[in-house]
Amino acid sequence: MNRKLNIGEMQMWQDAENLVEEIYRQISDAGSYSFNRHFRRIVLAILGNLTESGHATSQPQYCAFLSAAESACNEIRHMLRTARYYRYLPNSVSDKLEEECRELTLRIQGVIRNTESCFPVPAEKVKARKKRPKKNNNF
Prior knowledge:
single chain; mainly alpha; 4 helices; 66% helix
């Protein structure tokens, strides 16, 4: 599936890179070690899955990587709410990062929505396959 990334995908990747950088900067001293470690792993999963989608060898694989990046964005939003609840981050910081993450999620969803093969083909559009006759393997 050799294809070039379009402008929207490049902007999406750049937004993800900026989000990763900002979250790393903000959570360096926030919360416990295990909380920070998990947070960083999830943030890197967004960028990693977007990068992998650019190297996908098939449309289903491309869609799977985008979907994984979207899921990671949703988990980041949950982690930001947790950080706000436990006062690991100031409300203004967590609100800003959550909004950036929400915008990235919407951008990813837009790319998924514009990729036909990310959705199953409706049953009425699938052509009936002809059955092949069985081979007689009498040796």
